Amino acid sequence: MNQLSTARTLGRRDVLRGAAAMAAAGTVVLTLRPAHATPEKTAEVMGKLIGGKTAKEGRVTLTMPQIAENGNTVPLTVSVESPMTEKDYVKAVHILADGNPEPAVATFGFTPQAGKAEISTRMRMAKTQNIWAVAEMSDGSAWMAKTEVKVTIGGCGG
Amino acid sequence: MAKARIRLPSSAKKGEVIEIKTLVNHAMESGQRKDSAGNVIPRKILNKMTATFNGKEVLNATLHPGISANPYISFFTKVEESGTFEFTWTDDDGTVTKETADITVG
Known about the structure:
The complex is a heterodimer.
Chain A: H1 2-9, H2 12-32, H3 39-49, E1 56-57, E2 60-63, E3 67-70, E4 74-80, E5 90-97, E6 104-110, E7 118-123, E8 129-137, E9 142-153
Parallel strand pairs in A: 1-9, 3-9
Antiparallel strand pairs in A: 2-4, 4-7, 5-6, 5-8, 8-9
Chain B: E1 3-7, E2 11-12, E3 16-25, E4 46-53, E5 56-63, E6 72-79, E7 83-91, E8 96-105
Parallel strand pairs in B: 2-8
Antiparallel strand pairs in B: 1-3, 3-6, 4-5, 4-7, 7-8
């Protein structure tokens, strides 16, 4: 009740002053936000992770929701087509995010004992962006999948 | 100290591929957040996880701040014999959290 009556007595000038103050505060908040990675930066990080090789599209399946309401915890599953034998197995799976402050999210190292090249985890997403899953095989080849996830509320803090 | 939870079957057939689910209670402070006074909250995450079976490596993971709080990781392994899984998580400050789980294979 008290707040309502205050609002009613606010004059046009007060409102304008308030808006200006808010705009100024907004600028400060924006400059404090961490810089985000770009697809180029992410490709560079990926290149380093897989030793300068180029990853081809295929063999990797990345399962994620198309829309994540809460960027703090977005589930993902990566599975890779591989027999997982001593001769032919997945050595590592890298997960990258091209719009997070740091593109590298996680690296999982496998052994032939896995039996199945699949991993599930939960990640943070600062904003709508592409998530990349890259698999390094024992024969030296690298494969990848990419998917766009829309984020309603970002999950990296400000 | 982080608290870890493990879920896997207590028994399996020889050569069966089983799923192992792990979850650790940990804030995974990203180092990107600021407190109310505008100071950066220092990064503190579990940066490494390993799983071994009877001393042999099954999985290793390098985790970055992009992994959610209370990190959840599920993966698979083929079991050929009874034994013990050992899981470790290493914190940025060097603290190591350990957890073990047994399986009977027959």
